[in-house]
Amino acid sequence: MGKYDFILNSEEETEVELDETEAVAAIAYIAGAVDFATDGGVGAKVEAEFLQGFISGILSEDITVEYLVEQIQVFKDIIDEAGPGALYNAAYNALPEELVPAAFMGAYAMCLIDGDLPDGAAKFLVELQESLEISDEDAEEFRNQVVAILEGEE
């Protein structure tokens, strides 16, 4: 049983349906919201502008900060009403296979802190990789792509 099963292997559900872009953003949001410094609870601050820029870039879609701020509120509401597992399940169910890399890359980017990956975040990402059924080789490629993207922004 993984530390983050309460999110990634939850049976919590919500009636809120997400589209595929929202699904990518929700998985990245969850990764950014997990408080790795404490008990793994959800609630850390997520930077909407960073998430918007990264998600827009990897999806090649123009997503506004205002739209993403509204979506983050929807994500928070789902977590408050049904739990973080419900948000993950809604995102997972809406995520087409071709966007799994984008979701994982968004999650990885949200976990990096000043270019470093905290131990708790690394554990979460391993469990997320398993949940999304991503091979080790693909995960390494996606991580390298995120680093290249972030280094290109500096």
Automatic annotation (TrEMBL):
Source superkingdom: Bacteria
InterPro entries in UniProt: TerB-like
Name listed for the protein in its UniProt record: Tellurite resistance protein TerB
